[in-house]
Amino acid sequence: ALSNVANLLNLDMAIIAGNVAEAGEIIFEPARKEIKKRAIYPANKIKVVPAKLGTDAGIIGSARLVMIKKFFV
Question: What percent of the chain shows pLDDT beyond 70?
Fold first, then answer.
């Protein structure tokens, strides 16, 4: 599924967050291999990395969206 998203959106990077990211290389290495195998160039060259914000990434992003809509729109 990630390779399809990479093909469709022409991503440079796939950032994995939440509990899935906590699994580490158990998730990341197979994901990288599948993207390399199934995605078409240049999507097969994307980086797959964990979110720097860890498991809090979703809640921080949600809070930011609320702040933007409340104060800037």
Answer: 99
Q: Is 48 within 8 Å of 35 (Cβ atoms)?
A: yes
C-alpha–C-alpha distance, residues 16 and 50, integer Å? 5
Query: What integer pLDDT is reported at residue 73 of this predicted model?
Result: 65
Residue type, 58: G
Q: Is the pLDDT of residue 23 over 70?
A: yes
Band of residue 24 on the pLDDT scale cut at 50, 70, 90: confident
CATH of residue 50's domain is 3.30.420.40
- Tell me which long-range contacts 25-30 makes (C-beta under 8 A, separation of at least 24): none
Domain of residue 56: give its range.
2-71
Dmax (CA) of the chain: 44
Distance from C-alpha of 68 to C-alpha of 32, rounded to nearest angstrom: 33
